[in-house]
TrEMBL record:
Pfam annotation, one family: 2OG-FeII_Oxy
Keywords (A to Z) from UniProt: Ethylene biosynthesis, Iron, Metal-binding, Oxidoreductase, Vitamin C
Record has Ubl conjugation as a keyword: no
Class of the enzyme per the UniProt entry, highest EC level: oxidoreductase
Keyword Metal-binding: yes
Organism per entry: Acer negundo (Box elder)
Protein name: aminocyclopropanecarboxylate oxidase
Amino acid sequence: MEIPVIDFNELEGEKRKEKMEIPVIDFNELEGEKRKETMSLLHQACEKWGFFQVENHGIDKKLMEKVKQLVNSHYEENLKQSFYESEMAKSLKNKDNIRDTDWETSFFIWHRPKSNINEITDLSEDLCKAMDEYIPQLIELAEKLSGLMCENLGLKNLGYIKNAFSGEKGPSVGTKVAKYPECPHPELVRGLREHTDAGGIILLLQDDKVPGLEFLKDGEWVKIPPSKNNTMFVNIGDQVEILSNGRYPSALHRVMAHKNGNRLSIATFYNPAGDAVISPAPTLLYPSHYKFQDYLQLYASTKFSDKVARFDSMKKIGNGGHHNLLS
């Protein structure tokens, strides 16, 4: 194996641009001879990026278009006027100080364990019906992704993440529906301030024309382009980072305000249930809380053996070794 050589000249210009291309996972390539390569790409996307795009995800694209159309209509008919009449919008127009504010209008729909969609004011029957058709397909995609993540992490039970999220009533699923309206002074405000997502796996159906979403990668903000052909954008939340013992980190991201165009964002969160108890998967933990003399004793007889087996043995000595049957 060759020692990596870093050419600092390649950190500028076209070479760097190439290296910052967002990973794209083609689900059609999970079958057949390209599976190993695709799984490796997914692992790198989760480990090094914290976000990626999915093509051929299996979700009905006509339904995705319908959901976007109905949400845009809802915004025009029910949210746009009240947003621009709000004190926040008036303050920005006057260039007043509006710190700790986001230039967005949004509402949240709970789907699992209990739906609140019929309680949200002014949602049309068509939008409610479309969302009820759309969400089961998203849950199926989220659970497929979670199984692939488990496989890449080396967890024997491919349902580990789903089981860890489940609590008594199964994983929690909800959707934040947001519009980022045209902004008169985008230099003074964020569409949405910098943050990581609290939950698990986030599936984003976003605008196909207006940009604005950015993710931090290696100290640089990566601009996420609008999603053409309804490619699904995925990012990792804090709970997957914890369950993976830091292997799959959540990524800091933000939305920039724009002077031209209203950006659409429909983000569905596949999260732990409220009563789910979260901790790193035991098999992903290094051994801990052991005496160094015990390690040296084992090392003396296993020095020329695989260190992984040695670490596994040490887990049984320290308190990091309480293996969960789920793992």
